[in-house]
Amino acid sequence: MTAQSYNQMKQEMSYLFYITSKEVISQYNNKLKAYGISFPNFIVLLYIEKDKPIYINTLCKELYLDSGTISPIMKRLEKKKLIQRIRAEEDERRVMIKLTEQGAELKEHFSQITDDVVDEFGMDKEDSLAYYEILKTFAKKNIYNQE
Question: Which residues pair with 87 in a beta bridge?
Fold first, then answer.
């Protein structure tokens, strides 16, 4: 590969990163519309385990979200009665959240939603596994090591 074609490939990668991430989010949002939530709401709910409250600051760290991003998500999820805020007894400034029954019931649909979205990409199992490994490697090199 020549230096010129390599540079062209890198420019095309920027475009491909953009359109594929946009398409993935769009596919999820199309499926999630029926449940009245968006992709960021889905990601937050996905992370919260049933019967296991989590501190909001822990959620921010784990999902790489800042407080300005997580606050409106928390408000929307609470308004929809999908989560409940709990003040820590030892320090009322610290807030935990937990899934409500309604949130837990909604979460039961998540694996089917993910299956449907991934199936719509038209990748066979081998391609899906290869793509997963590429994404994991990218995250390890560019996100997880920045802490």
Answer: 95
End-to-end Cα separation, the chain, in angstroms = 35
Q: Is 125 left (phi over 0), alpha (psi -120 to 50) or beta?
A: alpha
pLDDT, one tens digit per residue, over 81-105 is 999 999 878 887 888 999 999 999 9
Are the CB atoms for 35 and 44 separated by under 8 Å?
Answer: no
CA 80 to chain centre: 19
Give the number of C-alpha atoms closer than 13 A to the C-alpha of residue 135, restricted to the C-beta side: 9
Q: Which residues contact 8 (CB under 8 A, 6 or more apart)?
A: none
> Band of the pLDDT at 54, cuts 50, 70, 90?
very high
Quote the CA–CA distance of 103 and 44 in Å, as a whole number.
11
Q: What percent of the chain has pLDDT over 70?
A: 98
Q: What is the pTM of this model?
A: 0.84
Query: Tokens 């019967």 appear where?
Result: 51
SS3 62: helix
Residue whose tokens read 């610290």? 94
Contacts of 23 by beta carbon, 8 Å cutoff, 6+ apart:
none
Count CA atoms closer than 13 A to 7's CA, side-chain side. Answer: 3
